[in-house]
């Protein structure tokens, strides 16, 4: 979703909250030492490829009439592939790299970059959908049978769509009521969020299906002994 103008008075309070949330999430992720997963050579290649893919994904965006910017998140994909702690740290790297890429494409100088937008982008496109994805996937593991088809459909399609819908709706409501400068009405924004959720579900579900079949070693949340009975 589109970033706030960091120079308005109302946005300053929001940025303070978002920075605290971001730092707390990354501190928790660091405490879990997720980089130990990357000792596996096969997973290193998948992780680096995912970073490149998501950095490109966060750089590509569509601007709707009224100025609303829509971007796919990819947060559910990162959680499914690498687990929540590593996903949270990886998404911040994606945020940083894509932000610098957008600044380069816009022709701006280093001093002209609006660094404050890093935090809203990270929270609304990375942190919140990742947390929702992890919660949804945890519920699915407890309540649904362990079957590869259930994993692909649930963790890939449904978790991605619902997480994107929840994060996008929360962002729209936050902007509408706490900042109050939305150029589109709340119903119009939620309609755009619904479209985004379908795209997020399709892309994530397709990639999860491909990786589970051809590169299951890249999917740390998919264990052969649980889903294939090995």
Could you provide a short overview of the structure?
The chain is mainly α and 230 residues long. Helix content is 71%, strand content 2%.
In total, how many beta strands? Answer: 2
Order of helices and strands: HHEEHHHHHH
* Low-pLDDT stretches: 1-7
**Cα end-to-end separation:** 42 Å
What structural class do you assign from the helix and strand content?
mainly alpha
Describe the secondary-structure layout:
Blueprint: H1 9-31, H2 41-59, E1 62-63, E2 69-70, H3 75-82, H4 84-105, H5 118-143, H6 148-179, H7 186-214, H8 224-227
Antiparallel strand pairs: 1-2
Helix pairs in contact: 1-4, 1-5, 2-4, 3-4, 3-5, 3-6, 3-7, 4-5, 5-6, 6-7
Keywords: Membrane, Transmembrane, Transmembrane helix
Protein name: Energy-coupling factor ABC transporter permease
Organism: Cupriavidus basilensis
């Amino acid at each position: 979703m589109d970033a706030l103008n960091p120079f308005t008075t109302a946005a300053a309070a929001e940025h303070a909250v978002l920075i605290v949330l971001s730092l707390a999430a990354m501190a928790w992720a660091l405490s879990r030492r997720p980089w130990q997963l990357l000792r596996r050579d096969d997973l290193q290649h998948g992780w680096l490829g995912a970073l490149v893919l998501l950095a490109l994904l966060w750089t590509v965006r569509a601007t709707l009439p009224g100025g609303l910017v829509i971007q796919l998140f990819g947060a559910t994909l990162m959680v499914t592939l690498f687990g929540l702690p590593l996903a949270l740290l990886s998404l911040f790297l994606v945020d940083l790299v894509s932000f610098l890429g957008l600044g380069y494409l816009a022709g701006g100088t280093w001093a002209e970059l609006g660094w404050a937008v890093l935090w809203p982008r990270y929270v609304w496109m990375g942190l919140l959908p990742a947390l929702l994805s992890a919660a949804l996937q945890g519920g699915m593991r407890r309540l649904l049978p362990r079957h590869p088809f259930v994993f692909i459909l649930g963790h890939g399609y449904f978790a991605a769509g619902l997480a994107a819908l929840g994060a996008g709706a929360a962002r729209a409501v936050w902007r509408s009521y706490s900042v109050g400068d939305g150029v589109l009405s709340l119903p119009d924004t939620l309609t755009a969020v619904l479209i985004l959720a379908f795209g997020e579900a399709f892309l994530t579900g397709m990639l999860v299906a491909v990786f589970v079949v051809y590169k299951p070693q890249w999917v740390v949340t998919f264990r052969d002994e649980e889903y294939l009975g090995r």
